[in-house]
Every structure is written in C-alpha cells, then in structure tokens.
Design a protein that fits this description.
The protein has 15 helices and 12 strands. With 409 residues, the protein is α+β, with helices and mostly antiparallel strands. The strands form 2 sheets. It has a 6-stranded mixed barrel with strand order 2-3-8-5-7-6. The protein has a two-stranded antiparallel ribbon with strand order 11-12. Strand 6 and strand 7 form a beta hairpin. Helix 2 packs across helix 12. The longest helix is centred in the first third of the chain and has 41 residues. The chain is elongated and about 95 Å long.
Length: 409
Amino acid sequence: MTSAKLWTIAYRDLMRNRRRSFLTLLAVALGLAMLMTFNGLIAGTWDEVIQNSIRLKTGHLQLRAPSYDEKKVSLQWQDLLNNPDGLVAGIQRMSEVKAATPVLWVSTILSTADESLGLQVFGIDPASSFYDPIRESLVAGEFLSADDRNGILIGQPLANSLGVGVGQRVNLALVNADGNADEDIFTVRGLFSTGILSYDESAVFMPLSKAQALARTGERASAVVVLLNRQADTDRVAAAIQGEGVRLLTWRDSNQLVLQTVDTAKGFYVILDGIVMLIVAVIIANTLLMAVFERIREIGILAALGMKGRQIMLMFLFEALILGLSGVALGIVIGSVGVAYLSQVGTPLGAAASAAGSNFALGSAMYAAFAPVTFMWLSVWTLIFVLLASLYPARFAARQEPVDALRSL
C-alpha cells in the first residue's frame, strides 16, 4: 500500500470522531501558543531591561580609569578619568557614535525636614543628547542648564515619597574626594518619570561642573559614556577607541548581571517548555490509544488482508502527524496573536518592578517581543514530542495478531 493511500486512511480515521480529533488538535495548539506567548514575554522583558540600561546609564561603551570600582563609587583622583573632555572630543568624530559624554557618579544622602534617603547623583552634561530620554520624560518643571549652580532633577516617584515638588529645597550630603563630609542645599528644578522605577526612585541629576565642585574632583569624571547609532557596531568601535590608561567596557560588560541572570533562567524555561510539551504528548498518546482500541477489529481485518505491521504503524504515525502539524499551525497563529497583543498592551508589574532592584531596569509593565528562532524551535520540538508520544500506540496497533484482533469483538 502506498504512502498516499495511508495518508488518506489516516485522515478518514481522524474524521470519524471529529470532536475528539479537534479537541486533541486544540490541545496541541494551545500548548504551543502558551509557550510562544510566555517565551515572547520573557524575551521582550529581558531585551527591554538591557535597552533601558543602555539608554539611561551604561551606554554601548564606557571608558573608565583602570582602578575605578563601580561598587565603591570612588571619588579618589587616581580612580577617575583625568581628561574626559579630550576623550569625548576624539570619540564624537566617529560616524558610528550618536553621543559621548562624561559623567560623575556620587553616592549621597538626600534629606528633607522629615526623611533621609541614600541615592546616587549623576553629574551630567545637560546639553548631551545621551540624556534626551530624561529630558523627554519631564513631567514638571524644567531641565537643567550647564551653568545651574544649585538645581537638581529627581524622579517623580521619589518626589512623591519625600513630599517635595518643583521649587522646593533639599539637602545633599556626601564624602568628597578629600575624604571629608560635605553638604549643600539644592533646589528641585524638575521632576522626571522614565517609567523605570529603579531610576525614578534612586537617581538625582545635576550639572557635571556642580557635581565636580561638590565632590572636589576637579575636572575629572567617573566615566565617559558612549551611545552608538547601531548596537551591532559596538565591537568595531571598541577596537577603534581602545587606548592605554583607560579601561573599556562594552554594554555586555556593564550588564553582566542581567546577562548571567538570563543564562541561568534559560534552564528553567527549558524545564517549563518540556513540561507543557509532555502534557501535550500524553494527550496525543491517549487519543491514539483510544483510536486503537476502538478499531481493533478493523486492524485485524487489514492485517488479514495483507497489510504489514509496518504499514499499520505508519498509518497511526500519519494520524499523529496530521494532528501535530494542524495543531502547530493553529498554535503559531494563536501564539502570534498573543505575542502581538502583549507587545502593545503588556502585563503590569506594579511593585514588582521596584522590588527587582537597581540592577534591573524594569518598567512598570512587561512587553512581549517576537523571537522567530525561538518560536521555530518550539514548533519543531512540539511536533517531535507529538510523534514520540504516538510511537507506543502505533507499535501496539502494529503488533496485533489478526486472529486475536478479530476475536476481540
């Protein structure tokens, strides 16, 4: 008997019990759609975390002094870049560079009449396009100017928790480069809300010149941050600007914790994917076993007429393949709709975004993203699980002796 004939028989057998066949097909489709939606949500979330970190803090590249330790936020002169403006001037001449700017990071304590909080000051060049996301996220007041001597920007969530607003004064205290405690009074010029709670609740922006004067670092900076037009150019630009006396970090180096977390989490995603596929496989196996028991006499007749066990087995495998292919096709459609919906609407995170900490630049919602390669492999493995699950029912049917099969009814 030809393969084409076996395909026809397999299709007709499935149509005998359309409801059961449809429900089995739907189980395959929903299982794959759920995996696509979940993996799309995870892929979109982690990509957003990295992109948020790049555009708000790390850039695609950073130049630092070799001895600078970000965890200590050192202000010692030997740990800072001596000539950040010269580095910026050279880097900005490259066509791949969108923005290059010096920044001074300072640990500080912000105090009001009622409360004190430990925060990080970003001493910035207000004219740099690197800070356009902050400029565009202003919700009250105005952006900083380079010659502002006592103005700062703070996040709206931080302002709400402190009970301060535009025009009000706060106190900033720190230990400067000389190792002495110092403090000054600043006026809140504006409030921003990027939607990234880890920044909106912990960052204070002031002009670089004022931050340098307050921290007594001279004209030194913690780093030069470089933003590129295309992320793909990172390694090429890094090779071009690598020089002696500075340490160069790419966005991968600056976001190691995020990338390591993603790599660790992938193991859990694989386990979850496997569990869902296993459930789908059990449903397929159950459906085919029921079909085998219902058609024992028919299998005996086919065997008595000369159909070989290999052909009987192939017939049931074809049934599983029809269910699998149809379920995968429908699952791709449903999953794509789900990913498209979540890419626009997202899933609110609420307090979980803030609880994630400053190491993860999570927004207030998780948004899905299409991951074609991941979706392709999910579809392939779903189909493989379906076929593997059908092997036992197919072999069981193929091993039926004609006499025993005919006596079963």
